[in-house]
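Please check our next protein.
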Amino acid sequence: MDENRGDQIRGTAGGTASVPLSVLDLVTVGQGRTATQALRTGVEIAKLAESRGFHRYWVAEHHSMPGVASSSPAVILAHLAAHTERIRLGSGGVMLPNHAPLVIAEQFGTLEAMAPGRVDLGLGRAPGTDGATAAALRRTDRLNEGADDFPQQLAELTRFLDDDFPDGHPYARIHAVPGPVQATSPGGVQSPARPPVWLLGSSGFSARLAGVLGLPFAFAHHFSARNTVPALDLYRESFKPSAVLDAPYALIGVAALAADDEREARRQVLTGALSMVRLRTGRPGLVPSPEEAEAYDFSPMEREFVDGWLKDIVHGTADDVRTGLDDLAKRTGADELMITANAHGGEARLRSYELIADAYGLPGAS
């Protein structure tokens, strides 16, 4: 096993937390706010997460959603690299079928050169959007083919990252730069290191593939909670030791929001629930304010959806959230929790991460 790569994957729990805590940011844009403000909030969250001992900060690729400004993870991560020094930065994830593998290898090779030893490459096989937008991204309407070809695309991307296509392969003379080829060129001093690859999923496909390949796995518990335990079980059962990992390592994305009192936490998470109602009914928009969400007249069907959605969001006071996260870690056996705090305004999200850090006694308490 490559110990260095394994060390880049495994986190260390801080304070009284039983597992490492990390951050997933969707760079949400609330009504009355701009994408510029959302991106600035992302920088503030990343800096807070670094100062408080969160292990990593990831952004997720989404498209054609007015309330989510994370369509270009590599661009956002480059910006964050300039404002942080230690925290791991990564994609949770880049949707591989949307891009040529060589392009991703070049982008993340560039990020690795900017922030050596602290870049993660999380990959998903979903489009991160609706079918029409996916077709526009991929310049084809054969969308199922892209998902079905995911293992082949992953193998090609890995070859570009490692610069090890076999002799005679059509791409043997093509190199992702920055990358390992610079270390093997005459006079080259470029580090041969490259970002560790994670597989992301919300069902069993990527769980099994990650296990068979001996890769770390990230599961989207925050929107597919019913499948979490079966997917993690499948990952562990399928796992084969590799040059990357000698044992399974799985994190789960968790929707969690702490506030100074339970009512305020409920007000904040209701904004995300209304956003999901609108997204699921083909009306995506900016994240509504707490006032609008409270005043919204949910239909019986919408109310049933919202009630179910909120059951999977850990929210309340800091103590409530700590208890919920601890219970979830114990129930799933997750090796790491990646917290996403979705709300209308950046202030509520920043406050949530501060309260959670305080609840676990992470360093730098305010």
Q: What stands out?
A: The longest strand covers residues 250-258. The CA atoms of residues 251 and 334 lie 5 Å apart. The chain has a mean pLDDT of 92. The first helix runs from residue 3 to 9.
